[in-house]
Request: fold
Amino acid sequence: MGIILGVLFLMWGIIILAIGAKKMSNKDLKAKSRGDNFLFEVEWLTLLIQKLPSPFVRSFVVIVGVAFSGLGVFLIV
Reply:
Protein backbone atom coordinates (compact mmCIF):
# COMPACT_ATOMS: atom_id res chain seq x y z
CA MET A 1 0.00 0.00 0.00
CA GLY A 2 2.87 2.34 0.80
CA ILE A 3 4.41 1.85 -2.62
CA ILE A 4 1.13 2.64 -4.38
CA LEU A 5 0.66 5.82 -2.35
CA GLY A 6 4.31 6.71 -2.88
CA VAL A 7 4.00 6.40 -6.64
CA LEU A 8 0.80 8.48 -6.62
CA PHE A 9 2.40 11.23 -4.51
CA LEU A 10 5.51 11.18 -6.68
CA MET A 11 3.49 11.49 -9.89
CA TRP A 12 1.32 14.24 -8.40
CA GLY A 13 4.41 16.17 -7.31
CA ILE A 14 5.93 15.90 -10.78
CA ILE A 15 2.69 17.16 -12.33
CA ILE A 16 2.60 20.12 -9.92
CA LEU A 17 6.23 20.93 -10.71
CA ALA A 18 5.68 20.73 -14.45
CA ILE A 19 2.63 22.98 -14.38
CA GLY A 20 4.03 25.38 -11.81
CA ALA A 21 7.43 25.85 -13.33
CA LYS A 22 6.57 25.94 -17.01
CA LYS A 23 2.94 26.67 -17.77
CA MET A 24 1.76 29.26 -15.24
CA SER A 25 1.40 32.70 -16.76
CA ASN A 26 0.78 35.95 -14.92
CA LYS A 27 -2.84 35.77 -16.09
CA ASP A 28 -3.22 32.43 -14.30
CA LEU A 29 -1.76 33.88 -11.12
CA LYS A 30 -4.20 36.80 -11.07
CA ALA A 31 -7.43 34.97 -11.97
CA LYS A 32 -10.71 36.59 -11.01
CA SER A 33 -12.89 35.11 -8.31
CA ARG A 34 -15.86 33.16 -9.57
CA GLY A 35 -17.92 33.87 -6.46
CA ASP A 36 -19.79 30.57 -6.61
CA ASN A 37 -17.26 28.62 -4.57
CA PHE A 38 -18.90 27.00 -1.56
CA LEU A 39 -15.52 26.48 0.10
CA PHE A 40 -14.82 29.99 1.35
CA GLU A 41 -11.52 28.86 2.91
CA VAL A 42 -10.19 27.96 -0.53
CA GLU A 43 -11.48 31.24 -1.94
CA TRP A 44 -9.84 33.19 0.91
CA LEU A 45 -6.54 31.35 0.47
CA THR A 46 -6.63 31.96 -3.28
CA LEU A 47 -7.23 35.67 -2.78
CA LEU A 48 -4.42 35.83 -0.22
CA ILE A 49 -1.95 34.07 -2.52
CA GLN A 50 -2.90 36.29 -5.49
CA LYS A 51 -1.82 39.40 -3.57
CA LEU A 52 1.75 38.10 -3.43
CA PRO A 53 4.23 38.87 -6.21
CA SER A 54 4.29 36.22 -8.94
CA PRO A 55 7.82 34.90 -8.14
CA PHE A 56 6.66 34.06 -4.61
CA VAL A 57 3.59 32.27 -5.93
CA ARG A 58 5.67 30.27 -8.39
CA SER A 59 8.16 29.34 -5.67
CA PHE A 60 5.27 28.30 -3.39
CA VAL A 61 3.94 26.01 -6.13
CA VAL A 62 7.40 24.54 -6.70
CA ILE A 63 7.85 23.94 -2.96
CA VAL A 64 4.50 22.14 -2.80
CA GLY A 65 5.50 20.00 -5.79
CA VAL A 66 8.84 19.10 -4.20
CA ALA A 67 7.07 18.25 -0.94
CA PHE A 68 4.68 15.87 -2.70
CA SER A 69 7.54 14.28 -4.63
CA GLY A 70 9.64 13.95 -1.49
CA LEU A 71 6.78 12.33 0.38
CA GLY A 72 6.31 9.93 -2.52
CA VAL A 73 9.97 8.94 -2.52
CA PHE A 74 9.87 8.52 1.28
CA LEU A 75 6.86 6.22 1.04
CA ILE A 76 8.45 4.17 -1.75
CA VAL A 77 11.71 3.69 0.14
